[in-house]
């Protein structure tokens, strides 16, 4: 029998996949990464131990009580509604950004991503300032969809930019219309990325505290905070927090599976950007009006409402010195959290980018636990851990910064790993052959090239820490206010006019680094996400 030799396969066009070293990682690097992973797992471990040490009968009664089931149903309905709304609006926005010729396209990219800097409770505050009677699922779903849509828009737009448009062109030649060909051929290529973003939106929704509390919708986070503040027995708070943590970790696992599917689906394909389409004047005006309406509702509406409240009240005594102190603490704490999160992410990110083993994969997975721990859960755990292990640190800025670092470590870790993977391994090997030590190679070759991506991760941590609320309420030192806690203390009393200056200051403070981050990572139509 003659065997026909298969022709050699040609490698697809596009950038080569990053190469990982297979040898054992240095012990110092692995040890540092394990310590970071242990720190990330500390709140969840404490929560499990706390619940396991409680009376089993009481735990079972708390899990089976009607209130727990009501909270689970309310949270599930909210997640489903917000997820569906974010998916539809995010896909529509991503399609408009990538496939439609817009006036000043770079501006629309920035406006589509800037809502990441706007806390959901600030949007809820604006809704209440206009309609004090607004309560329940409807207003809350609108607020969270506006806050979460960028989680879908950005990955979906990146996937649409990298989609193979050849099959769509072939479908057009066979008689399909442009809309039908896009929806049936190209849009499905972006669905895995959009679904991964939808799971991130669901995760944000499940972990959110401020907006559900302001709009009086009973969810898990609100129940945990209320149980912590209003009762002496903390078992109920711990059990509810563990249920919440289990639900969010399930969403994290689903999001990572969807992200791996998206990455595997596009590996080995050459990115082929489709030329934006010039629509008819009426259709183009409708698209621009839709994008503008979403941007106005998210970015222009809250400041306009706040200024209107101040004007209607005939001016408000803003207590500028105290406001300046709160802004200073916001900058100081978020900056310290960004530095600590980047420092913790570096050993894990380098390890995951350069080495492959089960130990490395397990260490990286544990380090991502913070992504599945809502702020209220981390705050509750660190309150008791600091009291038991290091009472001298209870209610100090150090514990709060550590809590921020655990919560937002996954953001810094993802950016760090990606940045290091993009540095060619061959450049490091050449430096080693020239006599440089591993540390010298890192500082002279890898670090300069990875620095922009690592810095972008730090910026993302700082922006997110500025608006973090539940952990800040639990862990902040006595007598210290951030802009978020100052805004919360006044809105919870219904003093909307007095809360307006703090809200405006928080919005301005968060939007500046967010705009820098968006321009660095999105960069408009031609940039990378």
Automatic annotation (TrEMBL):
The chain crosses the membrane at residues 28-49, 69-94, 106-130, 136-154, 194-215, 235-254, 285-306, 326-353, 365-386, 392-409, 493-516. Its main location: membrane. Residues 9-18 have a biased composition (Pro residues). One of its GO terms (cellular component) is plasma membrane. Residues 72-253, 327-517 form the ABC transmembrane type-1 domain. Residues 1-22 are annotated as: Disordered. This is Iron(III) transport system permease protein. It comes from Pseudonocardia alni (Amycolata alni).
